[in-house]
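Table S2 (text version). Query chain:
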Amino acid sequence: MSALAYKFRADLWRHKGRSLLAVASIAIGLFGVGTIFGMIDLLLAKMDAAHRLSQPSHLNLILRSDADPGVLQQIAALPDVAGIEALNQLNLRFRPTPESAWQNGSLIIRSDYTRQLYDKSALVAGNWPVSGKLAIENLSAQNSGLGLGGNVQLQTERGVLSFPLDGIVRHPFVKPPKFGGQAVFFGSVADAKLFGLAPHGFRQLLIRIRQPYSEDKARAAAVQIRTLLAEHGVAANATLLQDPDRHWGRPFLAGINGVLEIMALAALALSASLIVNTVSAHIAQQTSQIGVMKAIGGSHLAVAGLYLSETLLLAFVSILVAAPPAALAADLGSCRLLAIFNIDCGGFELPYRALAYLVAGGLLVPLLAAAGPVWRGATITVRDAIASYGLGADFGNARIDRWLQGLAGRWLPTVYAAALGNLFRRKTRLLLTQIVLVVAGAAFLSLTSLIASVNLTLDNEMARSRYSLKLGFVNDQPKPMLQEAIKAADPDCTIETWRRLPLELGHDRGMFRQKGSMGLQLLALPAASENYRPRIESGRWLQADDAGRAVLVLNAETAALNGIQPGDTVEATIGRHRQTWQVVGLYRWLAGSQYAVEPVYAPLETVEKSVGDGSASLALVSAPVGTREEESGRLRLLSEMLQQRGVVLDIYNTHGRQEQREFARHQFQPVIGALSGLAAMLAAVGGIGLSGALAIGVLQRSREIGVLRAIGAPSPTLFRLFMLEGLFHAILAWLISLPLGYWAGEPLAKQLGETMLGVSLDYQFAAAAAWSWLGLILLLAAVASYFPARKAATMAIHDCLSH
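Corresponding structure-token output:
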């Protein structure tokens, strides 16, 4: 075995602690890269595959009332319509047991479940529904406690009937219960009469347009279909547009993926800084050996090749360590998120692209990080190398060195002053260690500030919504009856009624585009209403003197798509009435995701004057409600009272204000969980970096430790010296991370807010979290410093001086 090969093995094997530290430094960054990129790849691929497998409709129209089958032929004859399927979806009330409270849900009835054309549901277990038996949707079964073999009671035209649950069905497009989705059941067409459905009527249309698909083409076809339905007296409550190749949940993940990718690369970059630190210390420790190698003929390239080969071997081991858990974590993480979107995860799959990134990063990043320190060591002169005793880099004559020395000597005990001085002795190592700890701290503070910003935004939205409960009705109801029924159930409340109408907008610049993909909806409210005031971006909100005037408040993003500013006019078609309206304000839409019906606000007095019929679609109830339980109880009481009068509630527009806040918060839980995991990983990187820096410091200051012990320094003093150095590292990193966490938290909150809620979050820095992070980083520093400090305290004088 050659001398270089012997040294190669000795460096790696005899210093196993340092080798393991280097492997851990590289592997943890690679784990982050493999997990995050793997999870993104698996998520998007499986989401799109499941979407295409369901044969998604391009247009999904949810109708307000039964439509006659005769209109289907007219729709099918439209030039851009390639196929059509009709089905029924209606709201109902159910309860798991006779003793349970009634809950709102929905029922889907298809004519033939074995011959579905579009938006195909999949049978998970049991059987498709037949006469007298129902199936329950997969997410509903998981969250309601109802399952295969159980029974559920439904309110029907014949009173309360019990149905056995004979199947579990996975539907491709249901709102997750945690986000406010209701329970969904599937029934047979033979039972349609039990729920008041016409024998051959339908309330939902699934439509495909002719190829090639384009969003503009789909929107134009939707306008034609809604116009045709309006001629037959049928209004569309919502119109959903779906891209046939891209899953509807992609927009939810768009902003998240960008943040996760940045943080994964940050973890890899932090690993690189640990490698630089480790290799620099290794070279500094072996400076005299480098001098000997060069003195006996070793060239620059030979010395550099030796140390780079060591780094390459450690990188290869790190890849082997990081790849399997990264692939497993990517699969588990993607499966958890896929479950939210009701997608079957399937079998284990390797994220090949992410593993390729992991291997490439695992080989290139350590080599690039080590190249600088290795080359500096390889090019050192023989004289400088042999003259080095590993005791350099002490305080110099720089101004900061003199200032710290004077400050510590005057105000701190000797051990504290020595620990503070040791912190700044090797400024390069201090910088690299601080980078790791500071980034971990900034990530923690940004995350907690994001959570605080979500809560502040939702609190502000609650302040803009001054009602307690909102009741939506499937069919418009007479105002006097609603006032009487609600007052009878709750005499202390006040009631305000709104009108909801289908709407088509147009202007002279071509087709009217909109931000949401479920169509526009006119919400007519009293001009002087104080119950709700959206976040106005420009222009103004409705005023009392707008009663009787044709004025609108429009979504700001939709206005931008059409080049509309406050003061411009648009052509509005409400039912069969067409009129010119003026846009007086633009609002920002909280929880205005791509998949929601987009409201356009107008004075109720004007709408009633135009279309007549003073009925109500919504009732806003203001009542003293304290807790979430009180809200649910009051909502249940009013719902039961109205149901007894034959009023069918619209489950998608019936909720409490606090309930909506809770559902909005749940949308952030997957993101917060992922960011929390990354913040924990970055904190682990910081702990490894600090422990490594102190361990290397013990090795490089071995002679110094021996001298201190020789002149009588006790073991507890040496232990305290290194523990204090670690704690000083933590305090310094905490001070630096505070402004960085504040600076980084605001753009993160802005991006995630716009991705998931449609608005920039109202930013709030989590000041209390700053003190939490101080406690956490001190604990992390204490754990990371313990073993290096213990080693320093137990080293023998002979071993120290012979180092």
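Notes on Table S2: Residues 389-395 have pLDDT under 50 and may be disordered. The CA atoms of residues 442 and 532 lie 37 Å apart.
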